[in-house]
């Protein structure tokens, strides 16, 4: 599809971002399977508002104001004459109890969705399986709803290097980071689109003299200074030396066979290989991790620059938290964090959003919880994004 041109300027959150341009290009997804596995207020003006299609709402707000809210995935399985489909539901950040979504993106080509992220402009990114056409990372502009058409489409193929992702992160400027078991981590600039080579590639450690120490990387996150956080796990296929830490941190724009600049590992961290489920950062550089160990979920908050065997500053866990099996985590601009939780591990049924203060600690009750009759089956990573 052709990517339209939209230019938006916006104020920073602790830093200055340049004007962004979506460049016109054409992409066509390849055939590849899709396996499983922020908040800025915008005061700029969208200058060019040409959508890809008249179907649905591609640009919902002509002034480019962010669609403030909580975004989650609803995957609808095939049933009778109804084909499988994936949707992105938007809820109010003040939601509580059983509530209805504010809007829904139900792009007609998507048979399932996985992972969510937002950029500083309010654009929504997800990984989609598009029936027999293959899989791709899609970008929907701010205000999209109904059968909106994506303005960004990066397919999974040998050119992009993506074979199937285990996590997706997008920074405020719209740079995309995808992690996967078969390739490591790749990055695409905000002006890249279609079947293009990534500008950044961190290969698996076993394929690059082991400097990256990446093995089955997942759940990437990027902070406001450009540092890239990646969760790491071990595998029966790993060759010596094995991955060194469950969370590794790379310098801004790091690419190639480079070592992480920091790691988080050791008994004091309470992290183990494969236990982090999602990560997010705030403008102060704090790292928020949803962690699941031996049937117990927690939200760990590490201070700026935390490295080595260092304990978290705070640890939200216990029966009052209502944390079941946790997945993704996201922060708003008002001092709250949000996670998706289900009562049964391995199940995406009956998900709930739990909202906590970012200063919370210990066995505390959430500030609010909500679910919806329109939200019955999340993606397997229990993804969430907040603007």
What does this structure look like?
With 387 residues, the chain is mostly beta strands. The chain has a single domain (7-386), classed as Neuraminidase, CATH 2.120.10. The chain is 0% helix and 33% strand. The protein has no helices and 27 strands. The strands form 7 sheets. Strands 5-26-25-24-23 form a 5-stranded mixed β-sheet, with no helix packed on it. The protein has a 4-stranded antiparallel β-sheet with strand order 6-4-3-27, with no helix packed on it. It is globular. The two termini are 27 Å apart.
Look at the structure and name the CATH superfamily.
TolB, C-terminal domain
- Radius of gyration, in Å, reads 19 Å
Whole-number count of domains? 1
Total number of helices: 0
Query: CATH class, please?
Result: Mainly Beta
CATH architectural arrangement = 6 Propeller
Strand content: 25-35%
How does the overall form come out from the CA principal axes? Answer: globular
Low-confidence runs of at least 5 consecutive residues? 1-64
Count of individual beta strands: 27
């Amino acid at each position: 599809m052709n990517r339209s041109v939209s230019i938006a300027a916006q104020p920073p959150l602790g830093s200055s971002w340049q004007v962004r341009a979506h460049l016109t290009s054409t992409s066509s997804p390849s055939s590849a399977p899709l396996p499983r596995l922020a908040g800025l207020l915008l005061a700029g003006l969208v200058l060019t508002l040409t959508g890809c299609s008249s179907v649905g709402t591609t640009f919902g707000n002509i002034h480019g104001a962010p669609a403030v809210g909580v975004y989650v995935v609803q995957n609808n399985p095939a049933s009778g004459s109804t084909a499988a489909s994936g949707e992105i539901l938007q809820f109010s950040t003040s939601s509580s109890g059983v509530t209805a979504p504010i809007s829904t993106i139900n792009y007609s080509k998507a048979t399932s969705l996985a992972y969510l992220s937002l950029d500083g402009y309010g654009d929504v990114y997800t990984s989609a399986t598009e029936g027999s056409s293959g899989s791709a990372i899609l970008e929907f502009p701010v205000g999209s709803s109904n059968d909106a058409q994506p303005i960004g489409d990066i397919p999974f193929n040998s050119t992009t290097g993506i074979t199937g992702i285990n996590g997706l992160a997008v920074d405020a400027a719209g740079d995309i980071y995808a992690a996967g078991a078969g390739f490591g981590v790749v990055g695409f600039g905000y002006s890249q689109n279609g079947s293009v080579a990534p500008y950044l590639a961190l290969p698996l450690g076993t394929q690059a003299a082991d400097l990256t120490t990446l093995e089955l990387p997942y759940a990437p996150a990027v902070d406001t200074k450009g540092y890239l956080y990646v969760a790491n796990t071990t595998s029966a296929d790993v060759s010596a030396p094995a991955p060194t830490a469950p969370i590794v941190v790379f310098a801004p724009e790091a690419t190639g066979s480079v070592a992480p600049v920091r790691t988080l590992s050791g008994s004091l961290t309470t992290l183990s290989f494969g236990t982090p489920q999602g990560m997010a950062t705030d403008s102060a550089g704090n790292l928020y991790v949803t962690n699941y160990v031996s049937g117990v979920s927690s939200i760990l908050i590490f201070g700026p620059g935390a490295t080595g065997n260092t304990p978290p500053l705070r640890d939200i866990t216990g029966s009052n938290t209502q944390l079941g099996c946790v997945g993704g985590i996201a922060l708003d601009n008002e001092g709250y964090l949000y996670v998706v939780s289900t009562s049964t591990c391995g199940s995406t049924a009956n998900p709930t959003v739990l909202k906590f203060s970012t200063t919370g600690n210990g066995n505390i009750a959430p500030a609010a919880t909500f679910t919806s009759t329109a939200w019955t089956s999340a993606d397997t990573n229990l993804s969430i994004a907040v603007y």
